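Entry for the shared binder. Reason: the reviewer on the internal report wants the predicted structure included alongside the sequence.
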Amino acid sequence: MKFTKPSWVIHNDSSGKSDQAPKRLSIFSVHVHPDGSRIATGGLDAKIRIWSTKPIISSVSEQSNRPPKSLCTLTMHTGPVLCVRWANSGRWLASGSDDEIVMIWDLDPTARGKVWGSDEINIEGWKPLKRLPGHESDVTDLAWSPEDRFLASVGLDSQVLIWSGYTLERICKIDQHHGFVKGVCWDPVGEFLATQSDDRSVKIWRTTDWQLEAEVRKPFEDSPGSTFFRRLSWSPDGAHITASNATNNKGFVFIAAVIARNSWTSEISLVGHENTVEVAAYNPHIFLRNPAAPVATSNICSVVALGADDRSVSIWQTKSARPIIVAKEVFERQIMDLSWSWDGLTLYAVSSDGTLAAFCFDPDELEGIAPHSIQQQYLQKFGFTLPPLPEGWSHTSIQLPSSGHRITPPPSPNRSSHPPHGLNGFGAPSANIGHEVVNTLIAKRNTKRRTQLLGPRGVSNSPAVYANSSSYRDSLSHAHSRTRHVTPTISSGLVPETSQPSTSAHSSDHIPPDMATEVPIDSFGVTSSAGAKRKSSVLDIPEDRPTKARTLGGDRVREGNLNVVKEIRSPINQRTVVPGDLEVEVFAAPPVLTYLSLKVTDTGDDILECKNAESGDLTEVSYISGKIVCWLDYLPSPGVVLAAASTFCAVGMLDGTLNLYSPTGRRLMPTLTLDGTATLLSAAKSSLVAITSNGMLYSWDVKKTRANFAPTSVRPLLLSPNSSAGGTTVTIASLVARPNGSPIVCVTSGVTYSFDSNLCSFVKLSEPWWAEGSDAWSSRPRNSSTQQAVVASIENAISDRITPSPGTTQRPTWWTSALTLGHLESKLHAARVLESSVEYKQILLVYAKKIADEGFRNKAEELIKDLFGPVYWRPGMSGEDIWNPVLLGHWKRDLLKEVLQVFARSKTLAKLGMDWQEMLKRAMTSDD
């Protein structure tokens, strides 16, 4: 083995003085290009640097500087670059940064030259192809899936984002981790994705539906949360995941955990490092235990490298219980990242001390290395087949008709049965892998003036022709007629060679349909006032376009409240027949009025208005602030009900549709079609609830654009026992939305309900029954309640509706105690459903005092155990019955502390309270 540590691979602090040696900054990531000719590094200087690998592993090349050591410096990120990963095709480079952005880079033949603000020279150019926003904190790791179908990114926002590997559009967001996500890797079969997080778990996700397949926690229960990364790796045979930052013996032994496929258990540990393992990286080759024996599961093994915070690197072959080598103190600080070359013979490592090291092996030292074709054959045994890619979706390149050279890298080496020793990934196959000049792309420029269309991602595109899309081709013809092309050519040096003939337009058929040339809206034809269509030039600017910013309808000034309300259409009664020949009146469809208005907030002067034309042919919806029209819209059906919150407005239409707008008038969701006309509508923060004329209850989270639960009928709430006997008919009195999406439905009988999505059932929040004997029932006036005390507000409203019963009625002995305890328990459940945190704590302490006053020891012990949880519970523990230590934002043991103070002050439960206080004190001390 040969070990090298080049001093010229550096991310330096450019702010230092010129007469001083450059200060090394931390290098967080390294990755080798699939052809082995380049590596990319990302560092604390917010830059990505691309280096030639030959000067690193060859002293002759290093001394001659041929090929050049530094090839390119990329400077678009505004924060430290935490991860760099080449696509398997070698065509694109992905980077993730502290600036919350994932950037995709593509080769740019015209971007060579001096780096802005420095004396560095870019030998080759790379341009930002697309910026992928979406993370809300640092992007810590990236991984391309097999065949580059997907790109996964993870970050300190606890999210996993899945992007298309070809269109670069976001496909899925996974947010089921409860801690910083610091590592990600793909199954080489393509069936699973694995992520590792500070919540002390490795989660396995299915790529077919992006749902959780398995969760592994045991090896990480005592793992420290101080590591910068938790980079894990999947073995090339698909059988194992090696995960970093695991421990044995209650956290005193630092290991890497080997997780078996399908069972998702960890029975094997790689032991030996003296500090936490930061990163694991498998060699891309399968190895044979006995090279002379045929390929079989029993004859397969792998090679994996580990980098740890003890400044050492270990390399293991899974057929042996001991590592092949251990390189101790090769760095001055912890190892941040590892990367194997595609031939499996060179391992690159980087450290936070700002240095890079290379471990170069002879084939004899890594015994049993098998060609990549063996891996492809072996992976077929799993029986998982990836769906075929759409035609033309690849990272491969256009063929130049005259030379046959490629202007982009060849197909991914890992899909070929031959190792890519003869390819440099950026030009024609080289006859000699040791050639000392890096092939560089140079664009042949046309001296004539030209207009270049820009693709949807800011990429200059050649016109694409699709055999099966004549209409698409026709729509582009006008734009293409004015477009001239740049013909890329290839040179083996830094000077352009003889120019090549122009590329045919038919050679760009590899571009995916949604990455083709973007067509200006005007080029599809604009209808003039006379009704005739015309083709508009890309650069035409209509004379009636505004010269400054404005709002839709903002030129109108509202002149006071002059709107006259008329009834256009009377309410339509709706009765529903339910089993037992009992008719239940659900709702009458609301009347259609000429004018509706709603004050958006209690404190502001913003108003949402709806004006229905008496002819019924159109409806105008507008948002008024003071006397200014902020926006307006026109709808085809009369509006019958309005709702508004600080973040959105909603308009229910007579035809059963629902439209939602932002404060600027942008439609936040598609037009929703309900089962009937919305008769009741209520909004709170980002939640909207509705009840239709057919009695269906809906609830949506507008911010997340999803339903909180499936539509549910409110008819069971209207089946009063008195209805069938000619008594009073029960109807819906009011509907109120809670910020968490829970509806509060009050019926005329005085009972108030909500829908619990966890229980899939309506639950009673309160009812007049408790007023019959509960000491906890309050009949304070309604205006004394606060916004937070929602349960108290509900009971105040019920008190206004009911008539107190005379106190002369004879009651059983335990009547008051039973009703009081039942009432308080019901209020606790109501506060949980409505997520009234402050109120829950108040009710809990009243409940504890009632138990103490009555001396109910069994109830007290049950309450204590519920709040205390498992005796030996610590953060990060898991089991069959997972105990949640937090309730409505309160730590349960903090609530218990106050409950025990109530018990300790009582006469009958004082000893119980003091005993548990001591136990709680010990438990909380051990947690610290």
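Summary line for the report: The two ends are 46 Å apart (CA to CA).
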